[in-house]
Amino acid sequence: MSTRNRHHHKGNAQPANPWNRGNNAGSTDGQQQPKVKNVKTPANNGGPSSSLKKSEEKFAQAHQKNLEAAKKYAAQQSYESSEDEDERGGSDGPTQDILGSVLKNYGGGGGDIGKTQEYLQNLLESRSAVCLICIGTVKRADSIWSCKSCYTFFHLLCIQRWANDSISQKRISHEQQEGYYNSRGEYIPKPALSVHWDCPKCRKEYEPVDIPRHYECFCGKELNPANHLWLIPHSCGETCRKRLVPDCGHNCVLLCHPGPCPPCPQTVVVSCKCGQSNAKTIRCSQRSWTCLKTCKLKRNCGIHECGGVCHAASECPPCTSRSKQKCACGSRTKEVNCSESRWSCGKVCGKKYVCGLHSCEKVCHEGDCGECPLGLPRTCPCGKTSSVASCSEDIGTCGDTCQKYLECEQHRCSERCHLGKCGQCLELVRKACRCGSLSKEVACHKVLNCDLKCKNVRSCGKHPCNRKCCDGQCPPCDKVCGKTLPCGKHKCNSLCHHGPCYPCNQKATVKCRCTGTTQEVPCGREKKIGAPKCRLPCRIHSKCHHTNPHHCHQGDCPPCQKICDLPNDTTNCAHPCAAKCHDAVRVVTKDKNFKPVGPWDVPMEIVEIKQLPHPQCQVPVPVTCIGGHETAQWPCYNSKPASCGRECGRALKCGVHTCPLQCHAFKKRDTTEEDPRCQSCTAGCLIPRPAGCSHPCKRPCHPPPCNPCQAPTKVACHCGLTQIFYKCHEFYSTDKTEQELVAFREGILSCGQKCIKNFPCGHRCNSTCHSGDCPNPEACTKKVKITCECRHRRLEVACSAARTNPRSLECDESCKSVKAAKEQVLTERERAQKEQEEAENQRELEEYERKVGGRKKHRERKRVQVEETKESYWMVMVAVPVGVLVLAVIVYFTLLR
């Protein structure tokens, strides 16, 4: 159990966790102390070394035991972490998919859904769900219960035991309670039993019927939800559908989720609070909105307009305009708020009723006083009989028993009906005195006190009570304290009390430094409050060359805040010193010769008033660099020309480059040409060559143009069979136009031989060596053979005509005769094959009958069948060669023609 969880568990004091009492026994402040058992130490000889050695051994054993416990706890936590990751199927992979599926049906947006997503992500990824009862991690497959107020998770078995034990302890505690008598002798019965159990975290009260009995999902639709890898743990995966809070008529559209439902994301069309603006579409959770118009409604006075920013009609504040108004009876007038125009002066009306005998006893009121109340139907003093009489007549008693409750509110008056109040209760009842030591029967209206003096010490903690028949509530001490107050001048005049005395209530006078201003302060607080603020000028002379006017003060004078304005002798320039006055500056130094005795010794600080030298002049002065590149404002004390750090930039003799040296001095300032101190150009020619030329210019750095490139170059012709030699400046010339250069290159790279490329049709190109695709591929004149549909006729035509219409040759009569001969041969071949199969089947059948011993067939029938079979067989053997011969002759003559 971690220290954080232990502290949290300690905060839930009632009801206590009964099954964790044994583990927390002997602990202090929620931390379990290590127990050391069987510690063998040498015998104590009474010396300090033996006691110190024993303490060190105990500390070493406790330290070793704590280290072992920490290692064991760390190993257990790592094992549980790996086990949880295995159960989740990864650390961060499925979590984002889970949250995406949860929030896919949510139509709202903004910060509310962001908070809900953050709550879910922290809950799933940080493993922050911990059962506060057993201080264990709530895993995916555990049965849980979630509080409806704080939405904290608990194991189902843990919360069931918690609720049952809480109810049992309250019942046991109620049975042990008893009634008691108070200081007035009244019997106070024990309070009624309130059986409920609380959430261990937020202390929300639940009834016994609310003890969870089943494991449900968060929305309560499914019992014992399955542990699905792609759903939130303990969720059914269906839409929540809970009524949103506050109830707006819509349901939650998130998937079954832990924690509270987010605000309603639906949109509604409503007007502003005052109703003056047009309706607009907003979120249902923000159903009311405020425009910037002022309210035009009348306030409660009915005269003035509200004038406030848009709000509901019932939220108009009371009218604050003031006017003189009369009271309700009209006898007084005063200035009041307009909303309080009806006010009462508190005066009794005193006007005579219509009867002229009695006066109105109502407090300041409006309207008529009404009829005389004595003229209305009245009852006798006890209220049992009623009669109607004029207000001048008195209603007498009825003669019956009064029977009104006396002041004790327990007994009734036994006298006859009478005027005025009833007397005191004379019933004898048994009462106990205040201290409870005496009990006897006395009259009900009397208070029973004994003569026993109280020996308890009063609240001051010094004097006894000595009060007779004290009920335990001893009065405060009535003696004078007399202690010297913290001011040290006066004594305490209060009654004897416990604890420190009140501060002194006397006054003392304090004065300023010049004694021109005085002030009265509480006695004893003169040093703490200090001298009063004095507005008179200080009388101490200034220590610098300025006049330093300031008010009277305590301590040293404030430093001068004026500018020095004396000649600056530090830099010996013409500028006056612009620093703050430094004629008299407070300087704190430490004694260099101080030798401390120990680490507690601190060197003494020496405070001196000194005149400091003038600081260096900071006035900006224009300074030009030694190379003449720029002029900048530099401080006066450092106004010597120097290098600016840029490149020199002077043009060199080559006319192409500039001096690369850092800003330096030079002789001629009126020119920008190369100076003797500049670095000469040593670079080669850097002029870019024509596009395609890869040969560098061999001349040193010079202005353009370069000499034509004479390098010989060879390249293959367009067809790749011949190497063409040319000069580089001719092939990549810059004097010709682009069209002329293209035509020139085309003429040079053509070898004049026949092109070796093929047309798309497969025949060789007829043109000479050229670049790009071969020209006119559709005009190929090569001869190709085409055939008719049956491939009997053949004809040679040009390639272009064959590609245009490859099936232009039609079949003739010879093609048809050849086709018919082929069909006849095929028919004869099929018929002969069929007869051969029938003969083979007949032979196999006869062979089978012969083996199984069947009946013999008639010889004549058998002979006829055999003869027919042989005859058909010879006919086939003769017809097939004849047909093949005829077909060959027909094909031969067709081909010749």
Automatic annotation (TrEMBL):
UniProt GO MF annotations: DNA-binding transcription factor activity, RNA polymerase II-specific; RNA polymerase II transcription regulatory region sequence-specific DNA binding; zinc ion binding
Q: Which organism is it from?
A: Culex quinquefasciatus
Segments forming domain NF-X1-type: 248-266, 301-321, 355-374, 408-427, 460-479, 487-506, 544-562, 654-683, 693-711, 761-782
* Gene giving rise to this polypeptide: 6045506
Q: Would I find Repeat among this entry's keywords?
A: yes
Query: Basic and acidic residues compositional bias: what residue ranges?
Result: 53-71, 830-852
InterPro entries, alphabetized? NFX1_fam, Znf_NFX1
| The family this protein is said to belong to | Belongs to the NFX1 family.
Which Pfam families does the UniProt entry name for this protein? zf-NF-X1
What segments bear the compositional bias annotation Polar residues? 14-52
What name does the UniProt record give this protein? NF-X1-type zinc finger protein NFXL1
CDD domains xrefs: NF-X1-zinc-finger, RING-CH-C4HC3_NFXL1
Task: Please give the start and end residues of each transmembrane region.
Answer: 873-895
Region Disordered: what ranges?
1-102, 830-863
